[in-house]
Amino acid sequence: MTIIDAIRPEQVPAMGLAAALILGFLAGCAVTGDADEVSVEHPAHQFLVAEIAADRHCRSFGRVARHLQTSPAQPSEIFKLQSRVSLFACEAP
Asked: What's the number of domains the chain is made of?
C-alpha cells in the first residue's frame, strides 16, 4: 500500500494545506525514467515527495514504485538549496 492508497476521503479536508505543499514540491521535481525504473530529483528533506512522484510515474505503466537508493544531499539548480536523487524500480503490483 502506498501513501496515496492510505488516504481516506474523510481525511482530505484536514490535509488540504499538506496536500497543497506536496503538490507544490511535485511541480518542481525532476522525474526521468521508463516502465522499469524512475529517478526523482527532490528537495533533500522531502523523501515523501519523491515517493509520490515515483509512484505516479510507475502507475502510468500499471506498476508500483519500490525505493532502491537515495543519493547524498547536493546543491541543486532546481531548488536553490539542497536536493537528493532517489532511484525507484517500477514493479508489477
From this structure: 1
Query: Containing domain of residue 50, as a range?
Result: 30-93
Whether 12 maps to a domain, the answer reads no
Residue type, 88: F
3-state secondary structure of 58: helix
Whether 3 and 52 have beta carbons less than 8 Å apart is answered as yes
Tell me how far apart the alpha carbons of residues 39 and 46 are, in angstroms, rounded to a whole number: 14
**Best CA proximity match to 64, nearest among 83, 51, 49, 76:** 51
Please give the angle made by the CA atoms of 91, 5 and 17, to the nearest 5 degrees: 125
In a domain, 5, yes or no: no
pLDDT band, very low/low/confident/very high, at 30 (cuts 50, 70, 90):
very high
> What are the tens digits of pLDDT across the range 49-88?
999 999 999 999 999 999 999 999 998 776 578 999 999 9
Residue with cell 525507484: 88
pTM, whole model, 2 decimals? 0.69
